[in-house]
């Protein structure tokens, strides 16, 4: 039976199987598994490992489409262009999205199931562009970057479903709150949801946001970037929107607990106001981080997203899947109980019939 491995296990498996002399096969493996660049230092104690191509997007966008081998799926009005993927055009009442997906790739002698992202520590770099004909405060609505349990679910939150489960990072270009004074838009904010919260459009998401910052990103003549970094339950969002090729801090939140096995995506929506919302690239990196034994216990996998020191409405965590033996025992004892109940019922019914006949005679 074909083996199915998580993406994080591919490299370890094939590194043992391939020798250094097998250069051509190693090159093919690197291209398929996304090990497109070597490590490079970012901070003390942290290094980039390899670019995870199965969860990344770049020109010429060959992995985008509807075929069974596509790594990314389009939704709504999103379309593939030569230099970018346009989520929405500068037209009213449009919405579009782009989502990473699950595919299976055959690397002899096994089939590898490419699942959602199972990395513990990661960094997503987003190269995007927002532009249009609208003047000040006459454009909208913005775009969102997602790391969520569900994918391809259209809805009102920048083109995605409300009450999502996971992380949403919003580049909001239009202030809906009329008495907005202390904030300058466009504005970047983040939200963690366990499926119980609604995004408040009238207040620009303020009741549920983790933090935010102003980001003047419209109609710029140079590249604009956003980076989302998740390391040791620490969420950091930075931006490079000044054309200086330097990251600038925007949001930093400790104690963010995100499950593994979620999907990356990006979406956008327009209403009465509009803009072109373009995604040029999404690049996911796995970060290598050393953990002490105490940190290993602290950083165990979670089933529902949460934030320390932030009260989210209670949701029931899903039960872990049953093993084959447990499932067999449940079915077996259920059948035994059913047969026992039927036998007892028949005995009681026969006794009742005997008593009825005696009373009749």
UniProtKB/TrEMBL annotation:
CC annotations in GO: COPII-coated ER to Golgi transport vesicle; endoplasmic reticulum membrane; endoplasmic reticulum-Golgi intermediate compartment; Golgi membrane
Pfam families recorded: Lectin_leg-like
Stored PROSITE patterns: L_LECTIN_LIKE (PS51328)
Keyword rRNA-binding found: no
GO BP term, pick one: endoplasmic reticulum to Golgi vesicle-mediated transport
Chain segments annotated as transmembrane: 325-349
SUPFAM superfamilies found in the cross-reference section: Concanavalin A-like lectins/glucanases
Cellular localisation: Endomembrane system; Golgi apparatus membrane
Record keywords, A-Z: Disulfide bond, Glycoprotein, Golgi apparatus, Lectin, Membrane, Metal-binding, Signal, Transmembrane, Transmembrane helix
Superkingdom classification of source: Eukaryota
Membrane topology: Single-pass type I membrane protein; Single-pass membrane protein
Protein name per the record: VIP36-like protein isoform X1
Signal sequence segment: 1-44
Primary site of residence: membrane
GO MF terms, alphabetically ordered: D-mannose binding; metal ion binding
Domain (L-type lectin-like): residue spans on this chain: 49-287
């Amino acid at each position: 039976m074909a083996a199915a491995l998580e993406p994080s296990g591919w490299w370890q498996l094939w590194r043992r199987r391939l020798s250094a002399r097998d250069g051509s096969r190693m090159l093919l493996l690197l291209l398929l598994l996304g090990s497109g660049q070597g490590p490079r230092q970012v901070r003390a104690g942290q290094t980039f490992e390899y670019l995870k191509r199965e969860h990344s997007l770049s020109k010429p966008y060959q992995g985008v489409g509807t075929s069974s081998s596509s790594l990314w799926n389009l939704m709504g009005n999103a379309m593939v262009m030569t230099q970018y993927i346009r989520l929405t055009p500068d037209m009213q009442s449009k919405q579009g999205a782009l989502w990473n997906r699950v595919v299976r790739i055959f690397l002899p002698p096994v089939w590898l199931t490419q699942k959602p992202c199972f990395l513990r520590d990661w960094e997503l770099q987003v190269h995007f562009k927002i532009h249009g004909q609208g003047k000040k405060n006459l454009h909208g609505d913005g775009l969102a970057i997602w790391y969520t349990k569900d994918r391809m679910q259209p809805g009102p939150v920048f083109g995605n479903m409300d009450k999502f489960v996971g992380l949403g990072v919003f580049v909001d270009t239009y202030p809906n709150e009329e008495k907005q004074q202390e904030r300058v838009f466009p504005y970047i904010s983040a939200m963690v949801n366990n499926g119980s919260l609604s995004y408040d459009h009238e207040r620009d998401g303020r009741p549920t946001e983790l933090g935010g910052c102003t980001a003047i990103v419209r109609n710029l003549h140079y590249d604009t970037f956003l980076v989302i970094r998740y390391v040791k339950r620490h969420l950091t969002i930075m931006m490079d929107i000044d054309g200086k090729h330097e990251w600038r801090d925007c949001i930093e939140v400790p104690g963010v607990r995100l499950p593994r096995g979620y999907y990356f995506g990006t979406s956008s929506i327009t209403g009465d106001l509009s803009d072109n919302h373009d995604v040029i690239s999404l690049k996911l990196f796995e970060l290598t981080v050393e953990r002490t034994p105490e940190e290993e216990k602290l950083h165990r996998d979670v089933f529902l997203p949460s934030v320390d020191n932030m009260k989210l409405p209670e949701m029931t965590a899903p039960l872990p899947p049953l093993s084959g033996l447990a499932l067999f025992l449940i079915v077996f004892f259920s059948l035994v109980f059913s047969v026992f109940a039927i036998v007892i019922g028949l005995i009681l019914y026969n006794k009742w019939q005997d008593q009825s006949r005696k009373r009749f005679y």
